[in-house]
Specification:
This protein is mainly beta. About 10% of the residues lie in helices and about 40% in strands.
Length: about 170
């Protein structure tokens, strides 16, 4: 299957780490292992990271090595938007201007209507009356101290409003 619509992220065989505020497990719908890190911002939500089955097992046998390998993701500093980051439960972690989802009228109260799972990434599914778009999560690779690279943008186009003002990146499919 090339892509699929996912409404809710469900993690099976879940192991919770209550000290570090994350859980790991397997998602049958996407056929991948996931680490879901709790973000305690104004609204509580999760950031999702792809992990391997080996890392799922590593957590069970050597937590300190697991913590070291995933320290950026677990600590949730600015550097947490690694290439392992596949999506989140809040649009603030997606590649758009603040409030981009309200640019156009929606058919529902909340235009954020789940995800499009495509090539290992959870694109935010935005439903406007005019159209449906899929916005990538922010992945940032620091090339050096002054340059950053956004790897998912190469698959996207810049969405602009009717005045030509950029509002978000959208998957170009």
């Amino acid at each position: 299957m090339e892509y699929q619509i996912i409404n809710k992220i469900i993690i099976a065989d879940k192991i919770m780490d209550k000290d570090k505020f994350f859980s790991i497990g397997y998602n049958h719908e996407m056929n991948i292992y996931i680490m879901a890190v709790e973000v305690t911002w104004i609204a509580w939500y999760q950031r999702y990271y792809a992990i391997t089955q080996e890392d799922y097992m590593l957590y069970q046998t050597d937590r300190e090595r697991y913590y070291s390998k995933y320290s950026k993701e677990i600590e949730q500093k600015q550097a947490c938007f690694t290439e392992r980051f596949i999506g989140a439960g809040a649009l603030r972690d997606y590649d758009g201007a603040k409030g981009f989802q309200r640019t156009y009228e929606s058919s529902d109260i909340n235009p954020f209507s789940g995800y499009l799972y495509y090539h290992g990434i959870l694109y935010a599914r935005i439903l406007w009356k005019l159209k449906e778009i899929y916005v990538p999560p922010v992945q940032v690779v620091n090339v050096d101290k002054e340059e950053q690279y956004f790897p998912l943008r190469k698959f996207c186009k810049l969405e602009k409003d009717e005045n030509g003002i950029p509002i978000c990146y959208r998957l170009d499919i």
